[in-house]
Amino acid sequence: MADTFSDSIDASAHAFNLILQGLTLIPIIHYEIAFVCFLIIFIYNFLEFHFFHDVLTLFRGSPVSLTYNSASEIYHGVASKCRLLHGRYMATPWLSSPHIQTTFLNFHGRPPAVNYRRKLFHASDGGTFALDWLKSSDVLGDSTCEESAALRHDKTPILIVIPGLTSDSSSAYIKHLAYSTAERGWDVVVCNHRGLGGISVTSDCFYNAGWTKDTRDVINDLHREYPNAPLFLVGTSIGANILVKYLGEDGEDVPIAGAVAICSPWDLLIGSKFICRRTVQKFYDRALTVGLQEYAQLHQTLYSRLADWDGIVKSRSIRDFDNYATRLVGKFESVDAYYRHCSSAQYVTKVAIPLLCISALDDPVCTWEAIPWDECRANKNIVLAVTRHGGHLAFFEGLTASSLWWVRAVNEFFGVLHCSPFMHTQKKNPPHIGPESSVDQGPYVNVSNGMVAAITKDPSSSTDNVKLNDQDPFERQKVNDESDAAVRVPDAKNVVSRSTGQTSVKVADLNSIKKWLEQLFQQNRRSTWMLTYIAVISTLPLMGATLYMLFRKKLKQPKSLK
């Protein structure tokens, strides 16, 4: 038995030696080729290249996916006429990776030469930031008079740009947008964030992902200075989040004719978890953190007084920086509270002007998981365009990567909108109470004290106009309580004064109940019939038992007579 075991061990060792001898016979060049192939496959998948897919599709690119409301006038009157939104996006072949595109944009980007004219804006809180202008005359070479009287009658469209995190007017993608727009005959003004563009922070206020005050003040000031010029708005990355939040907060009370949001993060809480999920995302997290630390270094005196400077220096992620700096300066209870408060997704349903949103599914910074698809579809003013590729704010196209696809899409959309009757004109609205959501297009049924009522304020409104507050449970309870009271108490306009007699009051009450029933049936017809059916089915056993008890003696009486 022992001999057999030793023989098997010797045979195994002999086989192993034979394998090693065979491997040594393979030329070293073959191992090098195998290693290179393995490395290429690893890098191809790690950096999410799609070159081979582009080759198989004959470099036709991927179609742009559009999400919109079927009754949207903005889509049918504007977006449907935009050739780029109904075409295909094909990335530059040698930049066929979202990470390569994003890196190339930040380190080179091939921006055109731009010479801005700088004006300083002084905020009411003492803050100062730069407005960098690029006039169409600077690009086209026309000399125009710029007297104040002439400016007030100037009807040249003005594009206002809100840059991304730690970006300013010197960023490559901002120069691409500014130059291309000015080349079309429009004026461009880049609203730099506080502390960027070489301007010191002169107050205790810093910008953050939800800071809409500066945007609002600049827009209102430009509207006063150029009352006849239509204003258009573009936000990129964090700037897009600020843009959507501003539009949602002010509703129709904005002097903006149309807007575009590029690569918005939408939900900052989801974005903060996404950017530290995978190894490749952690590189972006670290790179953006370094940029924020350099920004803080420029304003160390203020940050040392208002925030935790030691924590800022030790920060290794955006979340760390927001915990030690942003939330303290902005006076938020926690980082998650800051993210929830400043996320723009909750304001999408309140946008009341034409808005085009552009995102890429392979965006390595702002994940597609945060895109509010249903909210965008529910709002008739929004068109959401999503491409398969593009990276973060890149979207390079052509063999030389000399242009950005989204820049051309923005200019085309604004060009069609400017020539259409769908440009927004400012209307005064009541003060904004809070973000609401109308994604659930069905009526919200409230059950209280045995009453079943559809929540609504306008008797003529349909179920499509029912809106719920998904953000604040206390606000939702308040709406429910007010609706219960509205159901239980007849409308005061329909109630006749008691001095006219008890009969009039009863008639008014009957009319109110009749109107309430008609309203309930109109809004909730299917639900009402379903409840009636359930009520009938559920009471049949009780009715049968009652009838049996009543007629039991009569049924037994003939037997007793026998």
Q: What would a concise description of this structure say?
A:
With 562 residues, this protein is α/β, with parallel strands linked by helices. The chain has helices spanning 2-25, 28-46, 51-56, 73-77, 98-107, 136-140, 148-152, 172-183, 213-225, 238-250, 268-274, 279-298, 300-306, 309-314, 318-329, 335-342, 373-378, 405-418, 473-488, 502-523, 525-561, and strands at residues 62-63, 65-68, 88-89, 117-122, 128-134, 158-162, 187-191, 231-236, 258-262, 355-360, 382-387, 396-397, 403-404, 445-448, 451-454.
Radius of gyration from CA coordinates: 33 Å
Please give the count of helices: 21
Given the helix and strand composition, which structural class is it? alpha/beta
Q: How many angstroms separate the termini?
A: 99 Å
Helix content: 40-55%
Number of E strands? 15
Question: Could you explain the architecture of this structure?
Answer:
- The chain has 562 residues and is an alpha/beta fold.
- It is built from 21 helices and 15 strands.
- It has helices at residues 2-25, 28-46, 51-56, 73-77, 98-107, 136-140, 148-152, 172-183, 213-225, 238-250, 268-274, 279-298, 300-306, 309-314, 318-329, 335-342, 373-378, 405-418, 473-488, 502-523, 525-561; strands at residues 62-63, 65-68, 88-89, 117-122, 128-134, 158-162, 187-191, 231-236, 258-262, 355-360, 382-387, 396-397, 403-404, 445-448, 451-454.
- The strands form four sheets. A nine-stranded mixed β-sheet has the order 2-11-10-9-8-6-7-5-4, with helices on both faces. A two-stranded antiparallel sheet has the order 1-3. Strands 12-13 form a two-stranded antiparallel ribbon.
- One of its GO terms (molecular function) is monoacylglycerol lipase activity.
- The chain crosses the membrane at residues 28-47, 529-551.
- Keywords: Membrane, Transmembrane, Transmembrane helix.
